[in-house]
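Memo to structure team: turn this sequence into structure tokens by end of day. - J.P.
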Amino acid sequence: MPWPRAEVLGVALKAYECARSTRLVATGLLTIIDYTLPSTARRLWVIDVAARRVVFNELVAHGVASGENYAAAFSNEPGSRRSSLGLFRTEDVYVGEHGESLRLSGLEPGINDRAMERAIVMHGAPYVSRAVIAARGELGRSWGCPALEPGVERRVIERIKGGDSALRLLSELALAGHVEIPPVRGTRRYLTPLPAP
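Reply from structure team:
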């Protein structure tokens, strides 16, 4: 399976190592969503960091108010229907409106720490598939959740659930170092690199 671009992987691994060093996450799994790519691309990766292996590489939808084929606007605000950036920790699984869903905790104050309040979860959705892309030229969109292809979501969720796996969502701004993210609770280290002085 293909890997994320080196730049994307490097930024995500730095955030992952920071979270591991402060015991915010524990497992060797890192999930990356690269929102610099269009919705038509397989832009979600689950990586076994210790084994240096890509476990999954899948389609994923973004929020309806974040953009059309490309996600360009992001938010931490309830009701925004936008995707959020930053580092998340996977939590527990529940069965809801979209079937089996995985709760996500945002670890970055002011950036994604209202994810639980916003009910940002990973779930399956019928608007995520190659057939939808063929018909519309892009995926459908969620209300801010990272939505996966039906059937795929169960395998991914089963692998990364449990409260100690990391999920990193990136955009062009984050990669360029233009998103100033406050330090994660309990640490002075930044999860997203700051602009060079």
